[in-house]
Specification:
about 290 residues; alpha/beta; Rossmann fold; 11-stranded mixed β-sheet; 13 strands; elongated
């Protein structure tokens, strides 16, 4: 599930911080990387192309050496085209496991190009997207906020709405637990907007049913690994409660389906997962919904 990575890169300091922070993915089974840099229309101008290519090749070689030192087998590639389109095309055509991109926590003042690419990808990707959260440090420049790895004590957070897509995302949690992950938090939010006020009297019954569902998921994980599994249910607005828990527990990674259950187009994890990917302080792995025929 993690074996082959396609890494979106550029010349930015944020991109270099991303590369330095990926070593822990080796413990999740990652083996191969494609470092992909796309050229803009300005860079493919015949006058600018030779210079742009030379600069990019030097940068890619430097990043390649860092990844090779971490134990990856690395290929580099420079292509013309729109980043999100080329990354998604290659990820599907060459069957990469996961698309990896770095991003700062989104605010009105830090909507950088690198972050913008991350958020474009999550709306168009047909493959899982790992958004590695970066931080602008006042003295050290950009750094990876919370490196990901099996050996780390920080938990992996799995918010679920018990939908089919959440079940698909859960396969990644299973894989990590089988590999030796230490801690998992299974989390469900009873959506206040869909319960209050008409269904509020049914909260105890909803809570009992959802607790049993989480217990069943926990038992599945206990059978396949030795991770410490915690289950939590809260009542409120899903994105808000997930943000609160991220701040409380500092997970190394949040794993979510990118489309869930709901009423017509008011899907639960479809919009919530994108909000979390855009605004949370944690890295996020988004698993896209299966399309018809898959």
């Amino acid at each position: 599930m993690f074996r082959r990575l396609i890494i979106a890169t550029d010349l930015s300091a944020a991109s270099n911080a991303l590369i330095h922070g990926l070593g822990g993915l080796r413990t999740l089974g990652a083996e191969e990387c494609l470092l992909l840099q796309c050229l803009s229309s300005q860079e493919t101008n015949p006058v600018a192309l030779p210079f742009a290519t030379a600069v990019l090749e030097r940068n890619l070689q430097s990043q390649k050496e860092i990844l090779e030192h971490q134990g990856f087998k690395v290929e580099t590639r420079i292509l013309p085209g729109v980043e999100k389109d080329e990354i998604n095309r290659i990820a599907v055509e060459e069957d990469f496991s996961i698309i990896v991109v770095g991003a700062l926590k989104h605010t009105l003042t830090n909507d950088l190009f690198f972050s913008g690419l991350a958020y474009n990808l999550i709306h168009h990707a047909n493959k899982p997207v790992l958004i590695v959260r970066l931080e602008a440090h006042p003295t050290e420049g950009f750094v990876c906020l919370n490196p990901i790895g099996i050996e780390r004590e920080n938990p992996v957070l799995f918010p679920t709405d018990f939908s089919d897509n959440s079940e698909t995302a859960f396969k990644y949690i299973e894989k990590m637990v089988m590999g030796g992950l230490k801690k998992v938090i299974l989390f469900h939010v009873m959506n206040k907007a869909k319960i209050k006020p008409e269904l509020e009297e049914w909260l105890p019954e909803f809570n009992e049913a959802d607790n049993q569902r989480l217990k069943n998921i926990k038992n599945t994980l206990l059978k396949i690994g030795n991770a410490e599994i915690e289950t939590l249910i809260r009542y409120g607005m899903p994105a808000d409660e997930i943000f609160k828990l991220i701040e409380e527990r500092n997970p190394q990674l949040v794993v979510m389906g990118s489309q869930g259950r709901g009423f017509v187009k008011e899907i639960f994890l479809g919009s919530v997962s994108h909000d979390v990917a855009r605004h949370s302080s944690a890295s996020v792995l988004l698993i896209p919904a299966k399309r018809g025929g898959e």
